[in-house]
Task: structure prediction
Amino acid sequence: MNLDGTFSVAQQAFPHLARASSESGIDTTIVMISSIAAHIGMARRASYAASKGGVEALVRTLANEWSPDKIRVNGVAPGYIRTDLVESAIRAGTVDLDALEARIPRGRLGTPRELAQVVAFLAGDDSSFVTGQTIIADGGMTGSSANW
Result:
């Protein structure tokens, strides 16, 4: 689902994005969602991590293929975001919030709004020279020595 679904949607979107760019003369953009699992080893998440790593490879490849059509392709790799799914895992005791937050230099989970702001940046004009990149939005978790 993570990789195949993303690839399928991108293929279906391509003619529409290319036509919109051609007609308007303005770049169009697609932002794909990866995960920090593509960057750090996470026990019992091999297929998930591999699929998200594939999404990042897809970002780089399509950015190169689609640039002549004035389509930018980027990605976001979120860390732990305070979503209903994460909240339910905390309530169920399968995620220890204190231990998790101790591994995040910002000391907290991200919010959906913070993630949306990164996506909006990549989709907007302020990132017009950015393509083929994945921004990690994880409160510093993947760069922290506390995780190694």
Notes: Residues 117 and 123 are 10 Å apart (CA to CA). Strands lie at 28-33, 71-78, 134-137. The chain is about 50% helix and 10% strand. The first strand starts at residue 28 and ends at 33.
